[in-house]
Structures are given as structure tokens and as C-alpha cells.
Amino acid sequence: MRRNLITAVLYTVVTTIIFGLVYPFVVTGLAQLMFHDKANGQLLRRDGQLVGSRLIGQPFTAPRYFHSRPSSAGNGYDAANSGGSNYAPTNKKLIDRVAGDVALLQPEHPGSGVPVDLVTASGSGLDPDISLAAAEFQVGRVAAQRRLSEDAVRKLISQHTEGRQLGFLGEPRINVLMLNLDLDRQTELP
Asked: What is the pLDDT along the chain (190 residues), one digit of tens a residue?
């Protein structure tokens, strides 16, 4: 019995060291060496200042910027509190919020539909991307605010359009932060 107890304790200590210390350090080290940018959250800096991550959406509310999807994560885009609202499509709170968002956006294009991703949050509440339809919906406002032609803004959208993953998964999309940073680089802010 004593021998079994010693074997069990030694096995526990050895496996704890291997799988609790050695393995995580090796995997972390390899990730830092081979995929440094991805292992650190794909953080973006401008003029030495951290401006965000390619992986997490941000609230853009100024008219000169493309706006992101709404967020249900905490107080909005809170990565520590990621998650959707979990409201069912028939939930009155969700219906009222979406109707309010549509009413705010509708004046940009009277008589046309508002793209669904501009009024609904993603499952995580942190989606950094919008659809091509959502970007096109905002072209007029952004072009007018930036004093650019709509064609120039559409060209930027085209440059930032990411295709389907593996050629068939998902839909084409645009990373809002990357597009807005490029807009800032190309135009002077008022």
C-alpha cells in the first residue's frame, strides 16, 4: 500500500511539472517565435500608441468613420465580458433595440433597407468585421465627411475586403479598424 501511495504521489508531481509547467512554456515559446503577432493578439500601433487589435471590434461613432456592428459584450466591445445578448428573435428588448437602430440609420438611405449586421451584434459581441453591404451603406456619409469621392472610398473598401476563408467558408468582409486607420492615413482629420 505504501509503495502504491509513493508511486501515485510521484506520478502526480511528475505529470504536474510536465503538463502544468514544461508544456505551457514550450507552447508559449514556440507561439512567440513562430507566430509572434498572432500570439500577442494582433495589436495595432500608430505613432507608438496602441490603437486596437485586428481581432476585436471597436465602437466608431464619429460620422467620418465606418461604424462597426453593435456589441452586447459588457458595456460594448469589452473583451473580458464577451458574449451575445442571448435574446431570442421574438424578445421585445431585442426587437425594440433593433428598431431603434434602424430608425437612426434609415435617414442615411431613405427607402432602402439597413444591412442586418449594422443593427445586430455577433455571437461574441466583439466581431471586428462588417459585410460589404454594411460598408456600401456607409460610403456616402464617410465620403462627404472626408471630402472624398465615393469612388475613392469604394476603392479603399475593395482594398480591405477579405474573401471567404478557404475559398468557401463565410462571406466576404471588411475589418472596420483597418479600414478606418487607412482612411485616417489618407485624409487629414478635421
From this structure: 889 999 999 999 999 999 999 999 999 999 989 988 778 878 888 888 888 888 888 889 899 999 999 887 767 777 777 776 678 889 898 889 889 889 989 888 887 889 999 988 887 778 899 999 999 999 999 999 999 999 999 999 999 999 998 888 889 999 999 999 999 988 765 4
Say how far apart CA 61 and CA 141 lie, in whole Å.
Answer: 12
Q: Is the pTM of this model over 0.85?
A: no
Any residues with CB less than 8 A from the CB of 116 and at least 6 apart, and which? none
Q: For residue 113, count CB atoms less than 10 angstroms from its CB and return exposed for 0-12, middle for 13-18, buried for 19 or more.
A: exposed
**CA 119, CA 97: separation in Å to the nearest integer?**
8
Residue 175 CA to residue 161 CA, distance in Å, equals 8
Residue with cell 502544468: 20
- Give the total residue count for the chain: 190
